[in-house]
Amino acid sequence: SAAEKGGWSSFMRKEVSEQPEAVANTLLGRIVDGAVVIPELEDFGDEELRGIRRITVIACGTAAYAGMVAKYAIEQWARVPVEVELSHEFRYREPVLDPETLVVSVSQSGETMDTLMAVKYAREQGARTISICNTQGATIPRESDAVVYTHAGPEVAVASTKAFVAQIAALYLFGLHLARVRGTLSPEKLAAQLAELQAVPDKLQTVLAQGERVGELAHWMADTRSVLFLGRHVGYPIALEGALKLKELAYIHAEGFAAGELKHGPIALIEPGQPVFVVVPSPRGSAALHPKVVSNIQEIRARGARVIAIAEAGDAAVLPYADEVLRIPLAAPLFEPLLAVVPLQLFAMELAQAKGLDVDQPRNLAKSVTVE
Ligand code: G6P
């Protein structure tokens, strides 16, 4: 009903706008005196966390992209190998599991059947399991050794938005906790990362304020038949998520690629007028990667692509080549995905609305897939 949407035209628009609170509430009470405090993990003593040799993240859909983002952060901070696998692929390939493997499932609903079966399987094989979940008392947390809830509030729109940023926030908290316990980050570095995390809600507000621009862009592009998304490092899962959102909501063919893979195939798709979103890493934080992505932009532009860059405020290197630049506030590299995803969510939602589609209930999709 209109009342439930609190004055918003759709649940999705409401949920997109609630992302600052979704992150803030997920962090609330969990950062105390410069340390991460997660009482829910009391069963996982420091000794056990130091003994973990490998983390496998299992999830489906948008939740799996949150896992992919977190892989970069957890490996960098806690120096433990992280793999991310789709639950349905994991479950049926006889994965190698043991008590030193930690399986972290990510699920907004906590009811996705493929993820539930994968968690049960992992436990049967002797792995320890943690659930990142947005729904109190759901089945997956009940079947796991511990649960770290995201506090995004109920998500009604089928396409996941605020749960995604909350999942990344929760996974980052876990990664920083692990780093402290394992002694892989100095107290100063840990404090700096926690400060970055706590700054995310305000920065999300800044990105949301540009919604109108993205809306105009989407309206101009309402007849587009195919959109490509490029990203690198943590921008890669964001490219995948941007493409997923556009498929889900606007029924437009969309594909995300790792920017470095361009010359190994995807560049053959570029023809005059092809829209390409490029998630550009920060020139300050990612000095090695920024010029590589800018040169990718030059390459596709030379072949006629219409480039929409998502770049840090003040990054002038993209200006000569991009047809459009959507800005995100300055943030350390690992925190950029939390911001860069927002214009992509808005673009998909606005384009779907320009086409007259129902953004809360896209055709053929379910909010929670409770069958295998
Ligand atoms: C469905 C939804 C997606 C969601 C995925 C995983 O496909 O449409 O938006 O990302 O399930 O859901 P979960 O509840 O496990 O996060």
Automatic annotation (TrEMBL):
<dbReference type="GO" id="GO:0097367">
    <property type="term" value="F:carbohydrate derivative binding"/>
</dbReference>
<feature type="active site" description="For Fru-6P isomerization activity">
    <location>
        <position position="367"/>
    </location>
</feature>
<keyword id="KW-0677">Repeat</keyword>
<dbReference type="GO" id="GO:0006002">
    <property type="term" value="P:fructose 6-phosphate metabolic process"/>
</dbReference>
<feature type="domain" description="SIS">
    <location>
        <begin position="217"/>
        <end position="362"/>
    </location>
</feature>
<comment type="function">
    <text>Catalyzes the first step in hexosamine metabolism, converting fructose-6P into glucosamine-6P using glutamine as a nitrogen source.</text>
</comment>
<dbReference type="GO" id="GO:0004360">
    <property type="term" value="F:glutamine-fructose-6-phosphate transaminase (isomerizing) activity"/>
</dbReference>
<protein>
    <recommendedName>
        <fullName>Glutamine--fructose-6-phosphate aminotransferase [isomerizing]</fullName>
        <ecNumber>2.6.1.16</ecNumber>
    </recommendedName>
</protein>
<keyword id="KW-0963">Cytoplasm</keyword>
<keyword id="KW-0808">Transferase</keyword>
<dbReference type="GO" id="GO:0006047">
    <property type="term" value="P:UDP-N-acetylglucosamine metabolic process"/>
</dbReference>
<comment type="subunit">
    <text>Homodimer.</text>
</comment>
<dbReference type="GO" id="GO:0005829">
    <property type="term" value="C:cytosol"/>
</dbReference>
<feature type="domain" description="SIS">
    <location>
        <begin position="45"/>
        <end position="184"/>
    </location>
</feature>
<dbReference type="GO" id="GO:0005975">
    <property type="term" value="P:carbohydrate metabolic process"/>
</dbReference>
<dbReference type="GO" id="GO:0006487">
    <property type="term" value="P:protein N-linked glycosylation"/>
</dbReference>
<keyword id="KW-0315">Glutamine amidotransferase</keyword>
<keyword id="KW-0032">Aminotransferase</keyword>
